Amino acid sequence: MHPSERRYVITFGCPDRTGIVARIAGFIAEEGGWIVEAAYHTDPDTGWFFTRQEVRADSLPYDVDELRERFGPVAESLGADEDVEGGAGGLHWRIDDTGTRRRVVVLVSKEGHCLYDLLGRVAAGELDVDVSAVIGNHDVLADVTRAHGIPFHHVPFGTDAASKAEAFARVAEITDAADPHAIVLARFMQILPEHLCHAWTGRAINIHHSFLPSFVGAKPYHQAHVRGVKLVGATCHYVTAELDAGPIIEQDVIRVDHGDSIPDMVRKGRDIEKVVLARGLRWHLENRVLVHAGRTVVF
Amino acid sequence: MHPSERRYVITFGCPDRTGIVARIAGFIAEEGGWIVEAAYHTDPDTGWFFTRQEVRADSLPYDVDELRERFGPVAESLGADEDVEGGAGGLHWRIDDTGTRRRVVVLVSKEGHCLYDLLGRVAAGELDVDVSAVIGNHDVLADVTRAHGIPFHHVPFGTDAASKAEAFARVAEITDAADPHAIVLARFMQILPEHLCHAWTGRAINIHHSFLPSFVGAKPYHQAHVRGVKLVGATCHYVTAELDAGPIIEQDVIRVDHGDSIPDMVRKGRDIEKVVLARGLRWHLENRVLVHAGRTVVF
Amino acid sequence: MHPSERRYVITFGCPDRTGIVARIAGFIAEEGGWIVEAAYHTDPDTGWFFTRQEVRADSLPYDVDELRERFGPVAESLGADEDVEGGAGGLHWRIDDTGTRRRVVVLVSKEGHCLYDLLGRVAAGELDVDVSAVIGNHDVLADVTRAHGIPFHHVPFGTDAASKAEAFARVAEITDAADPHAIVLARFMQILPEHLCHAWTGRAINIHHSFLPSFVGAKPYHQAHVRGVKLVGATCHYVTAELDAGPIIEQDVIRVDHGDSIPDMVRKGRDIEKVVLARGLRWHLENRVLVHAGRTVVF
Amino acid sequence: MHPSERRYVITFGCPDRTGIVARIAGFIAEEGGWIVEAAYHTDPDTGWFFTRQEVRADSLPYDVDELRERFGPVAESLGADEDVEGGAGGLHWRIDDTGTRRRVVVLVSKEGHCLYDLLGRVAAGELDVDVSAVIGNHDVLADVTRAHGIPFHHVPFGTDAASKAEAFARVAEITDAADPHAIVLARFMQILPEHLCHAWTGRAINIHHSFLPSFVGAKPYHQAHVRGVKLVGATCHYVTAELDAGPIIEQDVIRVDHGDSIPDMVRKGRDIEKVVLARGLRWHLENRVLVHAGRTVVF
């Protein structure tokens, strides 16, 4: 990354009132900061205000820690607490340095299309992240993962509660060792236990192969086929303890018709799953996704 | 309509077996019929075969009644019963003459966008039908309807069961007098009683303002907003006794984001409602929609 | 309009530098203004900065003229000249009051679908404008226009230069009498003379029935059919002296296939023309479209 | 492939006349063939008729050579010549056996996204082909290709005519040795010489990163940015001697806005390039694409 491309990204949310934009923009201007991208949103339902600001790092004479320290009183005066966990889930405010490379852990099962797509994007230089680890409850995706120079961990899952708990403990151990910015459930077929949903709030991202809230749970393409829908979809969302009910980051659909069998729908749907997941992950890693009241603001 | 544009449209469904295409195409060829459009579909789930054939009327030396009489034994030999009701709901086979102008009755309430869109399409010559009547449980759409030279019937609905039944009896009377090919519920806010769902099977078409099966019932845009979806949709479907559960003819979606209030979603959704209804109605009137096992084949 | 829904809309463009957001937001905050929507954009190619701010009118103790007067020195200090013409074409800055109802003049020929769509949106209360006049070089659309209570002016166009010039003089006279915020060429088949392109810069909006820059000029659907494209499109753009080359406000496409004849493409394309024009016009009337260097910023 | 999934695919085109469907369907029925998919199209512009039929291989008591021999006289009687070259380019008729595994050669340069996408689809079992070889004029994509177990050939291209000719001779040698069903130009940055366009007619498939006919030639995203379009597209087409003018197999678009820089457009466009190429290639390999008069019929 060229120094001129390095950014400090400020995300911020608080109850709306007049003068917030002036206060934040004024602070940045006083510090000499050069804003290269700015977005604002007020949610009339909840009365909350949200903003995201990208400041050129080289326009400020100090580092991100100093910026956080100086911005703290501004945020406090506006009623926002620092989001020390850093998760988009409990947004108040945070500042991230794009000079810190993003780390991602990917959880998979047997279906490779989302993983291959992510690896291809990393290899093509389009998704600028470190894939710290891929963890599979099966090992069929090990070879291609390793061919990309990425560690693959096979963690078999039993069917009884005890062995599942043990497997998830191992998954958590490997994942947490990487301290990832995102944990991607790339068609991982196991339901995260509640304690991991909480521990990874705002960082665990799932791709569900339907246009939620349609077709929650297992075999959504089968459900879609039975209902005779004319479009199938995919939904990228944050993982919460309630299955397939987390805040939605991105969705898209693709047309199907009576001539499409379930395998056809599965195949066509994959193209949407891949792109919806890739968009959602990118936006998350760029701190574009703010969560409030179970919904997302995507700047 | 120029004589060379007049068609006999054959739709046909029966359990699949070898030789059906040859039998039907052979019959048409023997009669000297010129097929201008032909479509086939076999549903592997139900083992049923469907076809739709358009034959130039001027390629046959007799009229549609004679064609029906000659085709009867062919259909019978393949195991299909004539669909005397003529509804797409109970498809076996039918033959329609495009020289008979289609009649449509439209049921409305206060929201005019779908009605205005249909009237505009008729006025522009794009939808070649007679709108026999528009029936409203309110009268706010009377003036524009009448400006298009179309009768508007105001049938007020009470809130108790008896007055609703009386109102529906009046709606049925006006509707049945027109013997329409389609009864369009263009944002009609009353739920059809079961006996009318049955009487109008395969002819009553509803536009629902969500991507079904998401957000069944009232206020789907509000439901969508609460869930934080990134696309809103519309569904055109045949009316059945189970609310919003009839065979789906067409669906489409439009993108929304966190900046869209519920009124914004309502407004954007209307553009999809209009076009989805217009497409579904056109396909129905062209005998392109075949219903079997609760789903549609759209040729 | 409820007083709380009235807005002062500030649009602003100038060469980028640090502190612009702070300066503008600071000014609004000092005046006590309540910003309900704000958008910013910096174009790295041209080095220009753009913003659009919606302020609640009832949050300021004075009217829009006073706001303009006070804002003037702020804008001047940032290097922007007031855009006295008010056109989006020559943007520097302007402030509009949404309490002033928008006026629109529509130019048509024989094809009614875009006009009917606009009239339907006005009748449904979705497009909150006064259609001051509809002017047609043919009179086939007169009846429906008048049924909506809107004056229709038939201005026949001859084929020689002199009679065309005379007809355009009449069109300009009727149009300018209404002092409209937008002049909509709703499938108007005459090419505006250069002096009207200049006089109406930033206010004359055309709908072209192709995905520009494909298929400039006449009969774009025919051109599309010959080339065998798989999507047809529509483009809403500001009119400039160079044919079909003005700044693009909005575009969309719809899928076609080998089974679609040219009339099918025309029919399908209309659904896109209508919605693209309606979106573009709405954005224009809401002062969301800023023009610079031949391209638009749509906030 | 399970024997019951093996198909003989008949594609056929001839000047339209009555009785063609009956003749072909009758032939198949007499032979005892079980048609699992059938499509027909008549092009009113050219007066040509096209069909594609999938017959279960296990429903016929003989092999594909025998079927070709028996079908020959039927086709001849209808005026179609056997398409011995087998290319979709010069369609008359052909019969292919899906039991013969498809072979593909991919030509690349430095940009890997389309190649990675194809390799991912093959690895995921979604695209059931043998990638016989990948040929690059640079070697940056060699490692990932070989990690998938596929031979990578680096054929450097000079800048003078002689060295280009030499390089193309080597490309042709490697390609022709594989006798591929498709030669995919997956963002290959060299223009095929005319003799290879001819030799590979109907088999060479290119992905162009614009919505053709917009932005022919080099740097289409730059051209799109300058014009300020609101959608960018991709086009999959057969290669012909005229640059970017071959028959279009598939197209799609994705929305961009004023906030998208050229690199953003490049990145977003890639998602469309990949999916458009994958669809086009699949349809080609399934013999769904028939070419006539410079346009495609895609069944």
TrEMBL record, chains A, B, C, D:
<comment type="pathway">
    <text>Purine metabolism; IMP biosynthesis via de novo pathway; formate from 10-formyl-5,6,7,8-tetrahydrofolate: step 1/1.</text>
</comment>
<dbReference type="GO" id="GO:0006189">
    <property type="term" value="P:'de novo' IMP biosynthetic process"/>
</dbReference>
<feature type="active site">
    <location>
        <position position="244"/>
    </location>
</feature>
<keyword id="KW-0378">Hydrolase</keyword>
<dbReference type="InterPro" id="IPR045865">
    <property type="entry name" value="ACT-like_dom_sf"/>
</dbReference>
<protein>
    <recommendedName>
        <fullName>Formyltetrahydrofolate deformylase</fullName>
        <ecNumber>3.5.1.10</ecNumber>
    </recommendedName>
</protein>
<dbReference type="GO" id="GO:0008864">
    <property type="term" value="F:formyltetrahydrofolate deformylase activity"/>
</dbReference>
<dbReference type="InterPro" id="IPR041729">
    <property type="entry name" value="Formyl-FH4-Hydrolase_C"/>
</dbReference>
<dbReference type="Pfam" id="PF00551">
    <property type="entry name" value="Formyl_trans_N"/>
</dbReference>
<feature type="domain" description="ACT">
    <location>
        <begin position="9"/>
        <end position="89"/>
    </location>
</feature>
<dbReference type="InterPro" id="IPR002376">
    <property type="entry name" value="Formyl_transf_N"/>
</dbReference>
<dbReference type="InterPro" id="IPR002912">
    <property type="entry name" value="ACT_dom"/>
</dbReference>
<keyword id="KW-0658">Purine biosynthesis</keyword>
<dbReference type="InterPro" id="IPR004810">
    <property type="entry name" value="PurU"/>
</dbReference>
<dbReference type="GO" id="GO:0006730">
    <property type="term" value="P:one-carbon metabolic process"/>
</dbReference>
<comment type="function">
    <text>Catalyzes the hydrolysis of 10-formyltetrahydrofolate (formyl-FH4) to formate and tetrahydrofolate (FH4).</text>
</comment>
<dbReference type="InterPro" id="IPR036477">
    <property type="entry name" value="Formyl_transf_N_sf"/>
</dbReference>
<comment type="similarity">
    <text>Belongs to the PurU family.</text>
</comment>
<dbReference type="InterPro" id="IPR044074">
    <property type="entry name" value="PurU_ACT"/>
</dbReference>
<keyword id="KW-0554">One-carbon metabolism</keyword>
